[in-house]
Amino acid sequence: MGAEILLRIVFDTNVILSALIHSRRLIWVPALWSSGVVQPLVCRETVSELLTALHYPKFKLDDEKRADVLDRYLPYADLVSLPDPLPKLPVACRDPRDEKFIHLAIAAGADVLVTGDNDLLALRGTIPVRIVTTAELQTEMEKLKN
């Protein structure tokens, strides 16, 4: 029997990229979903952004490496459909491109949205989903283990 899912989480694209491509300090993040401790949540719009980002020249990823990143994330994710039309958010985000993460977190009933994006972090306490950094998530997960 697998581990009990403790949290349903929306990870923003930069967290996913950092965890799977270029940050040894976030190597613990993929272990959370691969062990079944957390359930990543995605929607068509967030997956589309991830696919686009994987083609950025700065990452220097070939097709095989892009597929590897997707294979280490998407099979663990729960695909959620966003409502159409999208409801009005309780507060506007400074960067409208980040609103997809807020809509996803609310629509999916996520426990938490994990980000390092200041535009999303500025919304803490204004939407019905907790917004945390990776460092805060790590602290929370360590407390849950004890």
Describe the protein's architecture and organization:
- With 146 residues, the protein is an alpha/beta fold.
- It has a single domain (7-145), classed as 5'-nuclease (Rossmann fold, 3-Layer(aba) Sandwich).
- It contains 7 helices and 5 strands; from the N terminus they run E-H-H-E-H-H-E-H-E-H-E-H.
- Helix 6 (118-121) links the parallel strand 4 and strand 5.
- It is globular.
Structure keywords:
globular; 146 residues; 5 strands; five-stranded parallel sheet; Rossmann fold; alpha/beta
Mean pLDDT: 93
Question: Low-confidence segments, ≥5 residues, pLDDT <50?
Answer: none
**Oligomeric state:** single chain
| Tally of DSSP helical segments | 7
Percent helix range: 40-55%
Specify the CATH homologous superfamily. 5'-nuclease
Mass-distribution shape: globular
**Strand arrangement across the biggest beta sheet:** 3-2-1-4-5
Main sheet makeup:
5 strands, parallel
Give the structural class: alpha/beta
Q: Class in CATH? A: Alpha Beta
CATH topology tier name: Rossmann fold
Radius of gyration: 15 Å
**Helix-strand topology string:** EHHEHHEHEHEH
Task: Determine the N-to-C terminus distance.
Answer: 20 Å
Tell me which CATH architecture applies here.
3-Layer(aba) Sandwich
Q: Strand fraction band?
A: 5-15%
